[in-house]
Amino acid sequence: MDVQWNDDAGSVMAAMVARIQAVLVDVSRDYSGKPVDEVKAALQERWASANEGASITDPELTGAATAISNGKRVWMEDNGTIMAED
Predict the structure, then answer these.
(1) How many CB atoms lie within 10 A of CB 6?
(2) pTM for this structure?
(3) pLDDT digits over 26-74, tens only?
(4) Is the backbone peptide bond immediately before 59 cis, with ω within 30 degrees of 0?
(5) What sign does the dihedral 46-72-18-16 (CA atoms) show?
(6) E strand segments, 1-86
(7) Separation between Cα atoms, residue 23 and residue 9, nearest integer Å
(8) Phi/psi at 83 (5° precision)
(9) Burial class of residue 20, CB neighbours in 10 A (0-12, 13-18, 19+)
């Protein structure tokens, strides 16, 4: 197997984080206070559409949806970690 480093990997990662951050902001705005299952469905759909079909899986999905449902701020760190207010 021949693995080659993408010289533009940093920019690709930054663009992905920016897309996901926008999804988290939008879902938070649109679904804050709604039932967790409704938030989860919206988050899964928007995440996939922003990331070429990639999915968010548990426990991150449930954690983020629960935080949004509870009106907490949710964001993604530059390293790809999803964070939420306590």
Answers:
(1) 9
(2) 0.85
(3) 999 999 999 999 999 999 999 999 988 889 999 999 999 999 999 999 9
(4) yes
(5) negative
(6) 74-76, 82-84
(7) 21
(8) -120, 155
(9) buried
